Amino acid sequence: MRLRREDLAGKVQTVLGLIEPGQLGPALMHEHVLSDITPPAMAAKDEPEYEITLQNVFRIMYGTCSHPGKYRLRDRGTAVEELREMKRVGGRAVVDLTCGGLKPDPEGLAAISADAGVHIVMGCGHYVQEYQDAANRDRTVDDFAREMVDQVQAGAWGTGVRAGIIGEIGCQATWTDQEKRVMRGAVAAQRETGAALNVHPGRHADQPQEIMDFIRAEGGDPSRTIISHLDRTIFDDDRMFRLADTGCIMEFDLFGQETTFYWRQPDVFMPNDGMRLQTLRKLADRGLLDRLLISHDICYRTRLFHYGGHGYGHIFENVVPLMRRDFSQEEIDTILVANPRRLLTFI
After folding, report:
1. What is the C-alpha to C-alpha distance for residues 61 and 29, in angstroms, rounded to an integer?
2. What is the pTM of this model?
3. CATH code assigned to 23-344
4. pLDDT for position 263
5. Which residues contact 209 (CB under 8 A, 6 or more apart)?
6. What are the residue boundaries of the structural domains of the chain, listed by start?
7. Residue 114: CB partners within 8 Å, gap ≥ 6?
């Protein structure tokens, strides 16, 4: 069954179907429940996995010890237990942004959602070109747009499970012509479906601004466009405030990563959770509270509590108590409940 835009308007679309926005509850807006983000060069080597233990988990997470299995979240039973733990400490919904190139599993997400009793909203579209299927090189903007519209209205990745958000649409710095075609298609799909759009920017401080200028020029809706990973991308107020002036939604989604060393970009010093909260407070004080989102972006096995990590419950169990030092309960609810509810509700 294909849904029309009027069928979606005013609703949130989960992997189990449409719900009323008020049913969503506190939500994590950028996670991966089932995914495989193994770097293509590593995947080509087909190296065997080995056990993650208390003796090696920090080295694997820190990036000094290679582990191909670290990048693979494929076990449904583990996912159910992880999400039940999140629910126990206050979470009620997760947005899984596992898109093309990251081995999405819509039916797996539906089964996990039903078993764990947690709402899951699924993304669609394509990740950075490095991960995309080779066939995408010859596809047109209209083709990408139609695919994403179909994923929202009819079903994604050969299933009847429908996406409830577009993204995370992947960009590199500098981004490729193919990535720009995907982004143009995503903007067109945003306009046609009324869904929100999530963007994975490249690792350069000026790229979020470049992307937002591009999206606005293409007729996208900044108020329903989320720029992810700002806590690994922009580190100065001028750039952050200039990006805010575009009207976009600003997402800080690496909560739980407390290590200053960032192995993906060693010249960057990563903030800890306290510093992330200081940035959120600064932005809230500029009147931007209704444009802030937080999450963990769990895509490594070592970040699950089963393997010694913090799990999906970290924000609810550990970060929210820290927020109460400088944020009112109403402000916390705006970031974790009201903003996700508004963005995940189709217009």
Report:
1. 22
2. 0.97
3. 3.20.20.140
4. 82
5. 239, 242, 243, 246
6. 23-344
7. 16
